[in-house]
Amino acid sequence: MPDPSRLPRLDAFLLPKGVYLDGNSLGPLSYGAQAAIERRMRQWQYHGVAGWDDWFGLAERLSGALGKLVGAYPDEVVATGSITVNLHALLATFHRPAAPRHALLATELDFPTDVHALQSWAELRGVPLRLVPSRDGYTLHDDDIDAALAGDVAFALLPTVLYRSGQLLDVRRWSGVARERGIVLAWDAAHSIGALPHHLHDDGADLAVWCSYKYLNAGPGAPGGLFVHRRHHDAVPALRGWWGHDKATQFAMAPTFTQAHGAGAFQLGTPPILALAGLEGALAVFEDVGIHAVRERSLALTDHLMARADALLPEMTVVTPRAVQRRGGHVALAHPEALRLSLALRRRGVIPDFRPPDLLRLAPVALYTTEADVDRAVAVIRELLDTGAHLEETAAPAVV
């Protein structure tokens, strides 16, 4: 059984100095990831091109561990590409405009790359892109999602967890609604994979994409992943590349594309092995601890953070939903001076994240954050608000 008392696993990570609360943007380096990258480098050093004897099926060998994290069969997931590339591949294949359904749907609160990708296909195919509105600028209302999943929408994209506020959406509910209405629904799980359990297959999700450099701690720019439900495995990828070819005959070098089974068919070019090794090593800690223990510990930490904010930071508004079934792994605090607070915190050894115009995002990640880290962060924020020292900050924020 999962054991949250085994967390945090401070012995598993090479943590930056201070209090690191920005793992929802970039997870820290783990010893496992470092060792895996070094091992693949040695293979390159000593074996050269013969290293491909081992590297050839590396992405597919990670599907079992990834499947456990997203609640999918191994043939439904593959480690490949980036969110943007994978979205384009899925949109090219599964957005099939035909009267009366042809429009695309996203939300006002999506991460920009999601909207950019959908805008591209809306323009290419001459169809409208509609956005689910937000009533408060931070969260989505169920009634608005329900109303948007209607009419002429053919393909929709929703985030499992909203990157700004940390609101968690109901994957089972909205996947069911979309399917009943004849809409293909994809999920962006960038801000949930590695932070909480998923059940993509059983919840009936059509498609999903994610990155691996946040809660999965696979390294900057590490390959992401995608999910394609088994009921869609007969779909032929509209964007084809040689790495999506059937592995048994890939090196026959035939001009005809014979697609690999399942999600692997949506791979495009040769994978970056050193970057993929970071994911290979990072997944080991999840295999050891279990994602359910991670979620239990994460909820305890975010509960603790919100309680401390309520008690000590009345000037700041917690915009993350309180209910456990409605929140992901980070807490967002709204304040007019969130930018300068974030800069001042970094100077004092507390690493948060800022999102315009007024959000300070704090991610107490189950694998390496302690209650003492949370208490230290809140205490420094309180000190800054009391002294006004953050008002002296004028530099632009780091790109994160």
What are its keywords?
7-stranded mixed beta sheet, globular, Aspartate Aminotransferase, domain 2, alpha/beta, Aspartate Aminotransferase, domain 1
Give a structural overview.
The chain is an alpha/beta fold. Helix content is 36%, strand content 13%. The protein has 2 domains: 32-287, Aspartate Aminotransferase, domain 2 (3-Layer(aba) Sandwich); 290-391, Aspartate Aminotransferase, domain 1 (Alpha-Beta Complex), CATH 3.90.1150. The chain has helices spanning 31-47, 52-55, 58-61, 63-70, 83-94, 112-125, 142-148, 171-180, 273-289, 291-312, 338-347, 371-387; strands at 13-14, 19-20, 29-30, 77-79, 103-107, 129-132, 153-159, 184-188, 207-210, 225-228, 317-318, 331-334, 350-351, 353-355, 359-362. A 7-stranded mixed β-sheet has the order 4-10-9-8-7-5-6, with helices on both faces. A 4-stranded antiparallel β-sheet has the order 11-12-15-14. The longest helix is centred in the C-terminal third of the chain and has 22 residues, at 291-312.
Task: Give a brief description.
The protein is of the alpha/beta class and 400 residues long.
> Remind me, CATH topology of the largest domain?
Aspartate Aminotransferase, domain 2
Task: Work out the radius of gyration.
Answer: 21 Å
Reading the helices and strands in chain order gives EEEHHHHEHEHEHEHEEEHHEEHEEEH
Tally of extended strands?
A: 15
Count of helical regions: 12
At the fourth CATH level, what is the homologous superfamily of the largest domain?
Answer: Type I PLP-dependent aspartate aminotransferase-like (Major domain)
Using the coordinates above, name the CATH class of the largest domain.
Alpha Beta
In which range does the helix fraction lie?
25-40%
Give the neighbour order of strands across the main sheet: 4-10-9-8-7-5-6
Inertia-based shape: globular
- Number of spatially distinct domains: 2
Largest sheet geometry: 7 strands, mixed
- The end-to-end span amounts to 36 Å
The average pLDDT value, as a whole number, equals 96
Secondary-structure arrangement, i.e. CATH architecture of the largest domain: 3-Layer(aba) Sandwich
What structural class do helix, strand and pairing data support? Answer: alpha/beta
Uncertain residue ranges: none
Beta-strand percent range:
5-15%
